[in-house]
Amino acid sequence: MGLYIDLVERPGKPHGQLSAGSVHHVALRTVDDTEQLEYQKLLSEHGYGVTPVQDRQYFHSIYFREHSGILFEVATDAPGFPDDESVDELGKHLKLPAWYESKRAAIEARVRPIVNHEYGVTIGGQGTEKGTEKVTSGGQHA
Length: 142
Fold this sequence. Notes:
Blueprint: E1 26-30, H1 33-45, E2 54-55, E3 59-65, E4 71-79, H2 104-110, E5 114-116, E6 121-123, E7 128-130, E8 133-135
Parallel strand pairs: 1-4
Antiparallel strand pairs: 2-3, 3-4, 5-6, 7-8
């Protein structure tokens, strides 16, 4: 976790382009919704086109682009990842926001397997192996 962002100004040089090896956006952290709304107001007062608050299930975000086009996100800490599962279960299942649950089968089919050695599970792909027991990425036993 960092406290500073180093920027290099290159007057007269072209802006970067989104492609392999580039950064999609820079995410900044704020404590709660109240502080985030203060940032939203301040950014708007300074001429930035700030989005409405976006509910990302595990946190709330606002987005804006600085004048050269770099996308910034300001996200809250709350509600946090333990919002829908216990801390003991974190990292053991493919979690999807409610609005993607109807597409779970298609998403799971496309996700390359993610091996979590700490918990002895593989998430995504053709399901999850845990010992000799097959567990799907949603956590159901097959």
